[in-house]
């Protein structure tokens, strides 16, 4: 807060600064109070002119206040996870973000977006529903889904403190959580471990377990379905630059099939080939994921990256987030991975996520990132950076045998680097820059 105070005079448009701190009295509406991190909980005597919440509510006008100079063109700034480089600020119009990022008043994608603010009132649920956000609020998955459910009257639980998987399972029971969202294997794996070591826990209230923001290994997906056999498993895809692009819902007992496939695709999402035309379903052609419609304005202070990512093709403005995919005969999209982290080995492209998903099924692999390391013969050599499970020391030969018959030969790792811990962002995103430099340093 000292830093906020020091720059406040330079930001005349700053009107409010909200400080969250425990208050050892019943809820009150208070004047602004500056609290330093680690300070003692507030007491009533410390607050200037406190007003009880019920008194403030009774004195308030029933009319909606008129706020000048605000509207659909207000800006929303969200930062990317920095999977392939430094995080980038993405600037959205508020209206585009409402429809593109948080569902337009339709969190379950069942009723369609609203056409007026008044229609939001008709979407308020009349039953108990609790969403549990595990990712930090810096992450789009936590921000967007929390806002979706808040706008329809649900209760939202924010995880506090470090990632304690036992505490998380206990919170599901304590708060009677309906939906919980994880961000890939970095969250799913500790939850599965805690269940196996200290469970089972009471989770009968859980209607759905969802994943977004990072891939979920098939082995962990299957284990989560065993843990919560009566819950729907939802896998979503999108990015800070595109908003929500699609999802896949697996009902209890449904066969997931192979690959990372999404059959519920949002309007505006397509796959473009090298000439900028939509990929023909069932053709097997690999193209770039593209999205049009409700999309951002630009990157913050990055005109070159903006020009590269936000393009106009035959009169339509698209955002190209960098994901590669193909379109199945039924119109569903199979996601392959980020083109910027793909490995070119002997002229063939290898998408790390596909190899990582298979390696994570080996009992000696706790976590893994796959990168390309410079090779005189092949250009790049597929390399696995592995965090072993406790007490295990996997060998390259063991991992090769595990992959044979399930991957094309050129995709199988040719080098192995063992590390104490695979580095990921606070939200669970892969740090491929770290993995690549670690592999290069280890292999010389």
TrEMBL record:
Record-given protein name: Unannotated protein
Gene3D superfamilies per record: 3.30.300.30, N-terminal domain of ligase-like (3.40.50.12780)
Sequence ranges assigned to domain AMP-binding enzyme C-terminal in this UniProt record: 354-429
Residues of the AMP-dependent synthetase/ligase domain: 59-291
Keywords of this entry: Ligase
Family the entry assigns: Belongs to the ATP-dependent AMP-binding enzyme family.
Gene Ontology biological-process annotations: fatty acid metabolic process
InterPro entries named among the record's database cross-references: AMP-bd_C, AMP-bd_C_sf, AMP-binding_CS, AMP-dep_synth/lig_dom, ANL_N_sf
GO MF annotation: an example: medium-chain fatty acid-CoA ligase activity
Protein's UniProt keywords contain Oxidoreductase: no
Species this protein is from: freshwater metagenome
């Amino acid at each position: 807060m000292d830093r906020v105070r020091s720059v406040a005079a330079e930001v005349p448009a700053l009107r409010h600064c909200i400080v969250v701190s425990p208050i050892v009295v019943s809820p009150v509406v208070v004047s602004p109070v500056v609290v330093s991190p680690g300070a003692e909980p507030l007491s009533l005597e410390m607050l200037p002119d406190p007003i009880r919440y019920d008194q403030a509510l009774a004195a308030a006008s029933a009319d909606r206040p008129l706020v000048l100079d605000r509207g659909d063109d207000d800006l929303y700034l969200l930062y990317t996870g920095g999977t392939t480089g430094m995080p980038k600020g993405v600037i959205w119009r508020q209206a585009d973000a409402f429809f593109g990022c948080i569902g337009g008043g339709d969190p379950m994608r069942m009723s369609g977006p609203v056409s007026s603010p008044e229609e939001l009132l008709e979407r308020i649920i009349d039953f108990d529903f609790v969403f549990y956000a595990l990712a930090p609020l810096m992450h789009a998955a936590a921000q967007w889904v929390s806002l979706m459910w808040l706008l329809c009257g649900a209760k939202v639980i924010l995880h506090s403190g470090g990632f304690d998987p036992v505490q998380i399972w206990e919170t599901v029971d304590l708060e009677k959580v309906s939906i919980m969202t994880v961000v890939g294997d970095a969250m799913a794996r500790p939850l599965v471990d805690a269940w196996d070591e200290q469970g089972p826990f009471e989770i009968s209230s859980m209607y759905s377990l969802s994943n977004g923001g990072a891939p979920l290994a098939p082995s962990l997906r299957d284990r989560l379905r065993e843990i919560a056999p009566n819950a729907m498993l939802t896998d979503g895809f999108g990015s800070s630059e595109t908003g929500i692009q699609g999802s896949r819902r697996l009902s209890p007992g449904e066969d997931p099939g192979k690959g990372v496939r999404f059959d519920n695709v949002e309007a505006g999402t397509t796959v473009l080939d090298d000439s900028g035309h939509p990929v023909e379903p069932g053709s097997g052609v690999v193209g770039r994921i593209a999205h049009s419609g409700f999309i951002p304005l630009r990157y913050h202070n990055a005109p070159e990256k903006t020009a590269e990512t936000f393009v106009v093709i035959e009169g339509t403005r698209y955002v190209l987030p960098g994901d590669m995919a193909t379109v199945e005969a039924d119109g569903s999209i199979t996601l392959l991975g980020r083109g910027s982290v793909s490995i070119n080995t002997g002229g063939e492209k290898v998408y790390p996520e596909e190899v990582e998903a298979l390696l994570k099924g080996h009992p000696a692999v706790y976590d893994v990132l796959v990168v390309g390391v410079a090779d005189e013969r092949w250009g790049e050599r597929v390399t696995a950076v592995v965090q072993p499970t406790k007490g295990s020391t996997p060998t390259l030969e063991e991992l090769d045998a595990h992959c044979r018959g399930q991957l094309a030969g050129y995709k199988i790792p040719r080098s192995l680097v063992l590390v104490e811990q695979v580095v990921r962002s606070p939200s669970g995103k892969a740090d491929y820059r770290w993995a690549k430099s670690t592999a290069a340093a280890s292999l010389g």
